[in-house]
Amino acid sequence: MVIDFTHTIDNGITSYTEDTKPKIEQISTIDKDHYEERSINIFTHTGTHIDSQRHMLKEGKYIDEYKLEDLMGPAVILDFSNINEKEITKKDLLIHIEEIKKAEFVLIKTGWQKYWCSEKYLTNYPTLTIEAAEYLSSFNLKGVGVDCISIGKSEDEMTLHKIFLEKEILIIENLNLEKIINGLFKLIVAPLKIKNSDGVPVRTFGFI
């Protein structure tokens, strides 16, 4: 069985500003041109996407420099959708320490994907504390993912990004974790191979 953790990209999806929304336009039709084709104009951090080191680190790797094996591996989903606080602490993570030890990717479910394509999605979303991020980055991980627009709020967004990226831990944002998998499973993160890209939309899915 395969579970898709990816939001569909269209012109109306959640973006920080109107200027960064996708622009997908049909330029040919079967009736007129005998074939169908579209123009797609998107930013590198559109929809469900991955952040490479280069997103925040001047000497970091671009997306096309990662190996395929960096983009797949055993994963676990940690479900924090029932916590009342807006921050996930180191104490919260310690409850799942045995699961984290076995994983190469940790996906964090906050339940925030229910606000996808609404203004609420952009603000006041749950995030890791700096201490929790530092603790999570101490494990031998390939990637960390969240079902929010960013892994950190504006006041500590760059700090949280750098905590992971400096250790070559990829960041996956805007995941759709409405359907979750219990226990360990195989995760695939499939980005387009675009030269010198700091990030790129991905199709992310798990096998059970």
TrEMBL record:
Cross-referenced Pfam families: Cyclase (PF04199)
GO biological process terms held by the UniProt record: L-tryptophan catabolic process to kynurenine
Domain of life, per lineage: Bacteria
InterPro entries, per the entry: KFase/CYL (IPR007325), KFase_sf (IPR037175)
GO molecular function, one term: arylformamidase activity
Protein name, entry field: Kynurenine formamidase
Organism field: Clostridium gasigenes
